[in-house]
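User: Run a structure prediction on this.
Assistant: Running it now.
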Amino acid sequence: MATYQIAIIEKKCNGCGDCTIACPVNTSGRIISEKEEEVILRIKNGKLEAINQDLCDGCGMCIEACPRHAVKIDFPCQSSAKKA
């Protein structure tokens, strides 16, 4: 299970792609990788998808880049640790 879980609020997302550009894992310089196994976020058919969430380090750049506040990061490992 990923340490960080990216949550997309679909009603708020307009598919602008700002988050995909801001994600340091997605980009190499200023170019977004076309290899699906190398990216966390992608826009497909005008919708944001979170894939390969195991690559996410929780930096929050996607959250800061989103003008509509449609991206958030949940911390499932922390919440399950609190229950123990």
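The first strand starts at residue 5 and ends at 8.
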